[in-house]
# Entry
Amino acid sequence: METPFRRVFSPKELSRGTARWAWLFSVVSTLSLCGMLLGIYLLVDLLMTRGEVLLPTDAKIAAYEHVTETLPSAAQAERIGDADNPLVGQRRFNQGLRVTAWEARQDPLSAIVRWLVRSIPALRTTNSALLTLLATNIVLALISSLSALQIKTLAFRTSQEVATRLRQSLHRQTLRLGPSDLEDGAGEVAFLMFTGDVERVREGIQTWFERVVRFPPLLTGLAILLLMTHWLLALQCLVPLLACLYLVRRERLRFEQSRRKLEDRVGDDLRLLAEGLRKTRLVRGFGMENFEHERFRIHLQRFLQKIATLKEDERLSRWMCWFVVLITVTLVLFLIATKTLRDPSEPAYLPVSAMLMFLAAIRLAYRPINDLWELPNVEQTAGLFADNLLRYQSRISEVGQAVGAKFLQPLSKLIQFESVTYRLPNKRLVLDRVDLKIPAHSMIAVLSLDPMEARALTYLLPRFIEPQSGRVLIDGEDLAFVTLESLRAESIFVGGMDPFFTGTVSENISCGDPRFTLQHVTEAAKQVHAHQFINKLAQGYETALGEHGTELDAGQTFLLGLARALVRNPALLIIEEPAERLDDDTKSLLDDTYARLAKDRTLIFLPNRLSTVRKADQVVFLHKGRVEAIGSYSKLINSVPLMRHWEYARFNEFRRDEVAE
# Structure
């Protein structure tokens, strides 16, 4: 079964596009690093031999010249001997890496060294060989580091491409699902996924990509280098090293599982210790102080004992890991040392320089092996966040456009709800067979003790939500069979908590629609009395709002939302007043603003001001999902007890300062 991680990032991505360049840089990095290790080996060997070789017999001299392909030079030779055997040997100086080629003639690396000596004349003398090796190692180190950095960059770029796809999909899905959220929580959930979950997935993909591309070639190169240095020793060291890694990781896993279980128990004891803090009246009232002290002492002792057990287990686990590592290191060093301390003439002899290269290669292989071992955890962790994203993206919007939907003409006669029932996704009943008629060009206030009911009724008009049964009609047209574009062009919802976008004031009103010029924007702002405060801003209609820009208060934001709706001149305007307290200037302007908006237009309010309710032509009061009463404010306040309760709960004498008269 395909995991969530593999669904957002398929392994096939490793064989296309950016990944191909990453593999190339991985090979370059591996070759550079292995070449640098070989260079260090040659450099150490050069420093140890100092370019000097002793050839005790003529046969050795001939063999040396054959191996290194050099001619005898009087300036480089010194005869040593005695009276009986005047020519027992020859000591040659300033031979560079030819000495290493001679000494390592039985090793697999000898062919590489001989090829280097034959191909690069600078390696045939000591000083020039020293300078060449130092310069080459520096260059190889730079190439290896830059290649590794390039792999990291490509891994980031690949992960960023996946994150961009996820964010685009998440953005589209939120635009589809967001309007259906009566509780306005979907936007916050989507925001957290957009900034949090996607970034966790991106980090996981980057880590996974980088390790998979970089480390297998590196381990292959190091393994080949070790086998060429001393294949038998490499195999002998491989067994204890892998066993050590397995035992250490298994012990760590055991400790983590044990620690989590013990921490859960410690948490239970801690809650028991704190239980008495909530029951002080009961303890003091019934004289239970001694009982409570004894109980607290017992639980505290148990708590401290478990903490001590956890620390002891952690200490023991750490010591066990160190013991295994120490034994393994000792065994590996012993195996290597036995080869180095042998007679140089023996086939299994390992020079000190080769030993140092051998140890360096083993050390460099540790992190790649450990990181590759952690890959399943990386994939699992990122997969949890990927699963959240995939589940969200698989949700189906409850509102869709019917095939062959018709264009809706502006409202001119009647809005009608016929036996409309709506339930939340958790099956909670919000509207229950609602029947309601709202005449056009009227001002209606929709009230309910449960704000969710009034909001659901108004959300049905622009089809942010869809009824499970029944239908909603405008001038006899079923909204389920009209185009969403024509419906939402003529039925606009202004939310009391609608924010402004990051952009200029003009862009916030026109929403970037080229049909609306600055003149249209200015006229709409004047109609809703937003022009005054806009002109007082630093740059008027070109003032930047939002992050790193100017902030508006609740009243200014609400007026901006009204201007945004009015510039589109809808036939039906649904206005949810802000729950937040408005300043006195805004309150004094709203009544005139509403009067201007009501001309040749139908207004439906979700009011939070008592004056708005009083001035409505009709008040629709919902209770338990049904229409409880319809009528003017003066009629309902005298005849409907629930209406009086609603007014008292919102506008009693303790909140008179919030009532706009």
